[in-house]
Amino acid sequence: MNIIDxxxxxxxxxLKNKGYDVQKGRFYGNLLFTAIILIYLFVTIIIxxxxxxxxxxxxxxxxxxxxxxxxxxxxxxxxxxxLILVIYFIVALLFGSKKRYEKSFQKYSEASEEKRKKxxxxxxxxxxxxxxxxxxxxxxxxxx
Length: 144
Fold this sequence. Notes:
Strand content: under 5%
Radius of gyration: 19 Å
Distance between the termini: 41 Å
Number of helices: 6
Helix content: over 70%
Shape: elongated
Order of helices and strands: HHHHHH
Largest sheet: none
């Protein structure tokens, strides 16, 4: 069992035990996995920006032509919303399909309680480490 199986399997397991619609767990798992991918994508962009500021300028040059120099709120909406949607649909197709979701639950339910705890802790660790990296790098980038 890997982290992805734990992510989807635990969603299914918790919703089933509470008597809720287990198919919502697939949606929640997809959202959480999308958030993790976005966090690590932003961490990568910030690290690349530390290495060379020209990289970020080259990435944003086509968008500057569209929006102009006012790169604030409009730019974030132009970039963020489609980015989130594209990553969500990729996650939903590759990892969050109904068949894969049920297979993840099977692996999760067949695992021992100790294995479930260990993999769930790893999953939470991946999320927390990414979030902390993002916050630390974002704050650091303000001073460099």
